[in-house]
Amino acid sequence: MKLQIKKYGHPVLRKVAEPIKEIDGKIIGFASDMCETITFFNALGLAANQAGKTKRIFVAKNKEMFLVFINPKIISLVGVEIATEGCLSFPGLFGEIERATRVVVSAISLQGKEIRVSATGLLARAIQHEIDHLDGILFIDRADKKERKRMLSVWKGLRNCIPKQYGNI
Ligand SMILES: [Zn+2]
Description:
By secondary structure, the chain is an alpha+beta fold. It has 4 helices and 7 strands. The protein has a 5-stranded antiparallel sheet with strand order 1-2-3-6-7. A two-stranded antiparallel ribbon has the order 4-5. The mean pLDDT is 94.
């Protein structure tokens, strides 16, 4: 089932998500819906908060493979790079955001196993972006002052130009 995405301004996007204690059928179903949703939007990742749930889970797409991260923890961040980034909670908005070049993250997989993922490039960026969501942090918060101001002003204008599939803001 495709999930409805909460847009900027919805209070759930500022909530800190709670750790998941048990991977039950509900969590598995939710992860599956999250994967379906990013496929629909052709996005690289989605965090639970964006679908209105304050649970520490996100999905990311790496090439054609889905990765599900439960209770993720950043082990290390190395290097710095600035690149263009978007977010399903701000459809149509892009900004230049500084992120670490390489990230190592530990998490629990959907099968309950501890996993460790070392990522660079787009996947590293997606992982940092989605973990931020679980802590109530949005990509505009990671932009420098001038870029944040520009992004917010573009966002105001975009509100009336959102493609229909994103729903109303
Ligand atoms: Zn996002």
